[in-house]
């Protein structure tokens, strides 16, 4: 429980920091921190494979991809589009967010309180599931990755003009 | 493993999701919008994992993996677009690309 | 008698011949036009003679011709001749023939000569159909026909738009009456199941109690129709303007025949009127009011024909007054005498206008007593008749009969009698004002033309009955001739029983005669003696009063304000097609919606995100709450 509280607090705080930074590199780093805490959370509830994937793929690959992209931008662009100076611009999205949060909280609290099952899910089980019933999904995931690859290449290539 | 109630986890997921949504709505820079989308995806994945752990079944993590895949593909294309936007308009402001045909 | 149908058929044939697109020379056109009316008159004589000498059983003659709508119970075409119809037929054919003869010369040289006679023949045919009809539907056909011809003939000189406007005005105002009449016919038919006039009377007497709502409604509607055609209050505004037509038209239509159609209608349907005493009282009041209004307006008119027009309205008011107090026979008597002397006056006026080169203004006439002697003397006879000055005036006997009947009638006999007496004074004032101004005042112009034989002969021929027709019916103290009453009592109930002794009759004759003479004297003083007044008796200080009377008590202005202006305003704002507005509104709404929705396609990424988020929140709310 204590682990849950601490790690979720870290996740929340760092997420808030992500969306309020001006410097995108800072935001990126805070996002990595948030992902890390989420991975810890995963581990604490008995999903070590998920924790590992979170770290390796999400924090390791995707965020690094962001870093590469940042690299290709000029320094002047980094400070463009900072958060609006006036807090008023946060009002509507904040309200909307609160409404949404309220609805979700309402739904969740209607559920009878249930603890998570003990024991967790070992990686072997996940692997068996992946190569068993979800085989088709895995293949489709590879299609998706291929499509993303091709698309990114196509968009990013040098145009003749 | 500590018996964390499911609702707490879902509540955390919801909170993270909403934060990501707010971030997407407020920030003008396309980069930050993409980051916010990542936050949202992550929140969704969190919910799935918690749900899977509730029943001690691997399905939750399987879906988590798929979400990860989707996020990766989307980030590829999104960043490529962002770079293209930057090449064209010399700025990362999303509002710069608001002119439409016709 | 079986050839009664020839009477309306001849003028109808004349119209058809003249309406064909043949190029007829004026002589031929006149021959057809006048000849058809002459033949009509000739063919009316045998039935008239045999009716008078050997009255058929029941004192009526019915000639069914054919059936137009066999199943309806109303669509028959048939002729009905009784004493009343015979009087009307004789009046219409005799006066009509003389006027046609007159117009052969009067309208000579006009480019619409053939057209004129065509219209006049059609008018005469319609009037005869109206008078001879045995059912109200056929009567209505004649009614509408005379209305149509009135319109065509008032606007005869159509090149001047003012004439067209006068014709339209006449048509529209009488239309109001016609509509009332039509509704009345529908009411009668739906309630009583027939439009045959005699049958109608019988059924009405059986089914409706005196004073019942339906009877009052039917009678009121019939009165409405009569009021329109006869130019009584409140529909009298068209007649003065109708003088825009040629003078023979004014003489025939607006003095002798069409305006008396209303009187005829009421007399014909007296069975229905007798069942509605309230409507009868209304008729009498309308007549009394009209005769005063028109009489006072006639005093200040400068146009000769307009003066005569107002006097026509006034005299028809006397007829309505008589009808209203139940004095059917005096009303018809006055109708006959009025037809004679009024057409005489109009034709005389036409002769004067012709002689002075189409001059209408009385103030510019004068000194014609020496230069147009025959016209002067016949005009004088007509004036004496109209002003009811004994002994050689038909108008005297008929008007006095009316006065006598009015005086002893209930419920408002005395009041009506005073009104009628005031009217007598007014009548002789304006009548002799006309005479003095036109003939006896100093000459102001030279003669431009001499009236020919075709003009003078009708004048003479009309002057004779104008003087002598009165002797068909004289008061008890002056010979007690009762020819007319006896003749007409076969079809109309007698006037209210005479109350009072012969002495009381004399007591009424003397004041009325004195009143007429007073009027003559006043006119003499004002117009002949005093050089200053010169045609205007009311001094400068009374100019507003004079203007008021000149405009016929302001009815035209009132109607313009109350009816014409709002209608024109409505027409103006409807020019933009109010109904279309609804459809254009729909289109405008669509366009508005389009504009609003287009704004959502802003191209701004964050807006789209916002929309997404809002939608998600809404759907979630729905799911959560439902």
Short description:
Chain A has 161 residues and is mainly α. Chain A has helices at 2-20, 24-44, 48-71, 75-78, 91-110, 123-130, 135-156. With 102 residues, chain B is mainly α.
Explain what the structure shows.
The complex is a heterotrimer of chains A (161), B (102) and C (626). Chain A is an all-alpha fold. Chain A has helices spanning 2-20, 24-44, 48-71, 75-78, 91-110, 123-130, 135-156. Chain A has a domain at 2-84 and 105-120: Four Helix Bundle (Hemerythrin (Met), subunit A) (Up-down Bundle), CATH 1.20.120. Chain A is 73% helix and 0% strand. The longest helix of chain A is centred in the middle third of the chain and has 24 residues, at 48-71. Chain B has a domain at 31-90: Helix Hairpins (Orthogonal Bundle). Chain B is built from three helices and no strands. In chain B, helix 2 packs antiparallel against helix 3. Chain C has 26 helices and two strands. Chain C has a two-stranded antiparallel sheet. The model of chain C has no long low-confidence stretch (mean pLDDT 84). Chains in contact: A-B, A-C, B-C. The interface between A and B is large, with 86 and 76 residues.
Question: What would the keywords be for this entry?
Answer:
A: 161 residues, mainly alpha, Four Helix Bundle (Hemerythrin (Met), subunit A), B: 102 residues, Helix Hairpins, 3 helices
* Percent helix range of chain B: over 70%
Largest interface: A-B, 86 and 76 residues
The sequence of SSEs of chain A as H and E is: HHHHHHH
User: In total, how many beta strands of chain B?
Assistant: 0
Q: Percent helix among the residues of chain A? A: over 70%
Q: Which fold name is given in CATH as the topology of the domain at 31-90 in chain B?
A: Helix Hairpins
Measured on Cα atoms, how large is the radius of gyration of chain A? 20 Å
What general outline of chain A do the C-alpha atoms trace? globular
CATH class of the domain at 2-84 and 105-120 in chain A: Mainly Alpha
Oligomerization category of the chains in this entry? heterotrimer
Order of helices and strands of chain B: HHH
Rounded mean pLDDT score of chain B: 88
- Look at the structure and give the mean pLDDT of chain A: 85
| Relative strand content of chain A | under 5%
């Amino acid at each position: 429980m204590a682990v849950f509280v601490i790690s979720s607090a870290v996740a929340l705080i760092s997420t808030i920091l992500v969306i309020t930074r001006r410097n995108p590199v800072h935001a990126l780093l805070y996002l990595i921190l948030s992902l890390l805490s989420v991975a810890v959370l995963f581990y604490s509830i008995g999903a070590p494979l998920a924790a590992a994937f979170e770290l390796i793929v999400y924090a390791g690959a995707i965020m690094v991809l962001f870093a590469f992209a940042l690299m290709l931008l000029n320094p002047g662009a980094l400070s463009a589009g900072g958060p609006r100076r006036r807090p008023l611009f946060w009002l509507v999205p904040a309200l909307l967010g609160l409404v949404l949060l309220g609805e979700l909280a309402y739904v969740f609290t209607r559920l009878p309180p249930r603890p998570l099952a003990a024991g967790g899910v070992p990686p072997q089980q996940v692997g068996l599931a992946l190569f068993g019933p979800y085989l088709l999904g895995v293949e489709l995931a590879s299609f998706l990755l291929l499509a993303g690859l091709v698309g990114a290449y196509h968009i990013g290539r040098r145009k003749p003009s | 493993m500590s018996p964390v109630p499911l609702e707490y986890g879902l509540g955390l997921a919801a909170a993270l999701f909403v934060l990501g949504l707010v971030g997407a709505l407020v920030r003008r820079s396309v980069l930050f919008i993409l980051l916010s989308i990542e936050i949202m995806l992550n929140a969704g994945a969190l919910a799935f994992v918690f749900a899977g752990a509730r029943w001690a079944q691997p399905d939750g993590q399987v879906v988590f993996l798929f979400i990860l895949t989707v996020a990766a593909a989307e980030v590829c294309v999104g960043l490529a677009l962002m770079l293209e936007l930057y090449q064209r308009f010399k700025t990362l402001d999303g509002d710069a690309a608001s002119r439409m045909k016709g | 008698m079986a050839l009664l149908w020839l009477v309306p058929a001849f003028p109808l044939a004349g119209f058809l011949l003249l309406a064909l697109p043949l190029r007829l020379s004026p002589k031929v056109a006149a021959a057809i036009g006048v000849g058809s009316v002459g033949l009509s008159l000739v063919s009316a004589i045998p039935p008239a003679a045999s009716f008078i000498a050997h009255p058929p059983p029941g004192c009526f003659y019915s000639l069914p011709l054919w059936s137009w709508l066999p199943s309806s119970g109303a669509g028959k075409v048939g002729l009905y001749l009784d004493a009343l119809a015979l009087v009307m037929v004789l009046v219409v054919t005799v006066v009509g023939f003389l006027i046609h003869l007159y117009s052969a010369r009067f309208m000579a040289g006009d480019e619409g000569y053939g057209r004129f006679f065509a219209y006049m023949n059609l008018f005469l045919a319609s009037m005869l159909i109206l008078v001879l009809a045995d059912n109200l539907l056929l009567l209505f056909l004649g009614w509408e026909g005379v209305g149509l011809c009135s319109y065509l003939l008032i606007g005869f000189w159509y090149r001047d738009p003012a004439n067209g406007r006068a014709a339209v005005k006449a048509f529209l105002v009488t239309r109001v009456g016609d509509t009332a009449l039509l509704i009345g016919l529908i009411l009668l038919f739906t309630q009583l199941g027939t439009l045959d006039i005699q049958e109608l009377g019988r059924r009405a007497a059986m089914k409706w109690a005196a004073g019942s709502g339906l009877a009052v409604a039917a009678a009121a509607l019939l009165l409405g129709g009569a009021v329109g055609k006869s130019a009584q209050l409140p529909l009298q505004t068209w007649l003065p303007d109708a003088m825009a037509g040629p003078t023979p038209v004014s003489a025939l239509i607006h003095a002798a025949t069409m305006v008396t159609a209303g009187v005829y209608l009421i007399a014909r349907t007296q069975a229905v009127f007798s069942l509605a005493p309230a409507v009868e009282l209304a008729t009498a009041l309308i007549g009394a009011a009209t005769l005063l209004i028109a009489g006072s307006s006639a005093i200040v008119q400068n146009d000769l024909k307009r003066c005569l027009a107002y006097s026509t309205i006034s005299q028809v008011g006397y007829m309505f007054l008589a009808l209203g107090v139940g004095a059917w026979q005096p009303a018809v008597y006055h109708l006959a005498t009025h037809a004679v002397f009024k057409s005489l006056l109009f034709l005389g006026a036409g002769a004067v206008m012709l002689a002075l080169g189409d001059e209408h203004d009385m103030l510019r006439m004068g000194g014609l007593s020496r230069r147009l002697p025959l016209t002067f003397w016949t005009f004088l006879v007509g004036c004496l008749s109209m002003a009811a000055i004994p002994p050689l005036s038909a108008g005297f006997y008929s008007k006095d009969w009316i006065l006598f009947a009015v005086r002893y009638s209930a419920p408002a006999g005395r009041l009506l009698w005073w009104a009628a007496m005031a009217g007598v004074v007014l009548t002789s004032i304006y009548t002799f004002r006309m005479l003095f101004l036109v003939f006896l005042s100093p000459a102001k112009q030279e003669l431009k033309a001499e009236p020919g034989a075709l003009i003078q002969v009708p004048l003479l021929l009309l002057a004779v009955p104008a003087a002598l027709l009165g002797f068909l019916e004289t008061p008890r103290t002056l010979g007690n001739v009762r020819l007319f009453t006896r003749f007409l009592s076969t079809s109309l109930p007698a006037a209210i029983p005479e109350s009072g002794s012969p002495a009381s009759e004399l007591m009424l004759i003397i004041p009325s005669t004195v009143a007429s003479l007073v009027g003559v004297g006043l006119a003499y003083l004002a117009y002949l003696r005093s050089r200053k007044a010169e045609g205007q008796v009311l001094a400068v200080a009374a100019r507003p009063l004079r203007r008021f009377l000149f405009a016929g008590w302001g009815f035209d202005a009132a109607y313009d304000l109350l009816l014409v202006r709002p209608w024109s305003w409505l027409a103006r704002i409807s020019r933009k097609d109010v109904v279309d507005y609804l459809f254009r509104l729909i289109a405008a709404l669509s366009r508005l919606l389009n504009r609003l929705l287009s704004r959502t396609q802003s191209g701004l990424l964050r807006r789209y995100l916002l929309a997404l988020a809002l939608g998600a929140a809404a759907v979630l709310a729905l799911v959560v709450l439902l």
